[in-house]
Design goal:
By secondary structure, the protein is mainly α. 82% of the residues lie in helices and 0% in strands. It comes from Fontimonas thermophila.
């Protein structure tokens, strides 16, 4: 397969969504005022929501992508599966640190918040490196062992296993993080299979999340 006709990257869109959300959450945490209860409450809730998403994402990859790799090349998922176990521990540690921030007295909250920021920044860095491994090594295994049609089928099984509320949240993060042609192709597929009312509701939820130019282009594409 030539570089101009690349194989299907099953990780690409969801990883761009996760990278963007991690970066946004890290930025929000770094600029949080420890004395502003409302702002801090919102930022910690955003971080908890991200951790929920990360935990679910690990389970989806273990169940579908790692299982597919092991089915045709036993042992091939060991590296990223081991990383996942470490990430589960990291998520639990971050949840504990969030509670320490919430429980801290006013005079100690700034130092606790900084500790959480540093811990989360390390978690983000590890995840960025991990996602690169998945998009290089894991993809190489999948491409050698499966056709693109088969990889699409595995992906569809994974997507079908995601509860509707979680799927809507993922789309809300993914659609702004991918290119306009990818956005239109993804939503075009959804429109082809979803009831009109459901698709219109999804589009109404997604449009405010886009920059002005992207919003105008998407409206025109689905007018």
């Amino acid at each position: 397969m030539s570089e101009c006709s690349p194989r299907y990257n099953v990780y690409s869109k969801i990883h761009r969504a996760l990278r963007a959300h991690m970066a946004e959450t890290l930025t929000a945490l770094g600029r949080s005022d420890p004395a502003d209860e409302t702002q801090l409450r919102g930022t910690l809730a955003q971080l908890e929501g991200l951790l929920d998403l990360c935990a679910s994402h690990l389970k989806h990859e273990d169940r579908f992508m790692h299982a597919a790799m092991e089915a045709r090349r036993p042992g091939s998922s060991h590296k990223t599966a081991s990383d996942h176990l470490h990430h589960v521990e990291g998520i639990a540690a971050l949840r504990r640190e969030i509670e320490r921030v919430r429980a801290a007295e006013a005079g100690c909250r700034e130092s606790r918040l900084e500790a959480l920021y540093h811990q989360f920044s390390a978690f983000v860095a590890e995840n960025f490196e991990h996602m690169l491994v998945e998009e290089s090594y894991n993809n190489a295994v999948l491409w050698e062992c499966y056709s693109d049609t088969e990889i699409h089928e595995i992906e569809q099984l994974l997507v079908a296993s995601i509860p509707p509320d979680e799927h809507a949240r993922i789309l809300g993060l993914m659609v702004p993080a991918i290119s306009a042609p990818e956005r239109e192709a993804l939503l075009g597929h959804i429109r082809a299979v979803a009831p009109r009312e459901a698709f219109d509701g999804l589009l109404s939820m997604l449009l405010p999340r886009l920059a002005d130019a992207d919003r105008s282009r998407l409206r025109a594409a689905f007018a």
